[in-house]
Write a structure and sequence with these properties.
This protein has a single domain, classed as Immunoglobulins (Immunoglobulin-like). It has 138 residues and is α+β, with helices and mostly antiparallel strands.
Length: 138
């Protein structure tokens, strides 16, 4: 009986740890954009945000290559985050902007993933993150 209780505790520990690990993302660029695009920031930390007050943040896409950068697509992992981005080619040494708006309509911690595709690596999406906590509804 003690062995069974211990096994259940171990299982619960690993399940709870896996939930924590799922909320973190390796920050870096494993795509062909690396060395060509500087993403500022790669992860947005919003901190505490009021319930139902949209959170707007931007990501700068600085072209550090010697050819034009084109942001082909920016896709959010949910309907609660909307993205707008620079559509025209970004010349070398210049920057474009990705604007993200999160609706903050669900209380608690959040972690949103934004998937970006560029002409430098059209077959691979780069994942950037936005995290924070929506405060309880008053």
């Amino acid at each position: 009986m003690k062995l069974r209780a211990f096994a259940v505790l171990v299982l619960l520990f690993f399940v709870s740890v896996s939930g924590i690990v799922a909320q973190t993302m390796q920050i870096g660029d494993p795509t062909l954009n690396a060395g060509k695009v500087q993403w500022i920031p790669m992860q947005i930390e919003t901190g505490d945000v009021p319930f139902a007050v949209p959170v707007e943040r931007t990501i700068e896409a600085k072209n550090i290559s010697d050819e034009d950068l084109v942001i082909l697509a920016v896709v959010s992992g949910c309907h609660c985050t909307v993205a707008e981005w620079t559509k025209e080619p970004i010349p070398p040494g210049k920057s474009g902007v990705i604007k993200l708006v999160f609706d903050a309509l669900k209380e608690g911690e959040f972690y949103k993933v934004i998937s970006i595709t560029t002409n430098f690596d059209p077959e691979t999406n780069l994942a950037l993150g936005m995290t924070g906590t929506v405060l309880p509804k008053e």
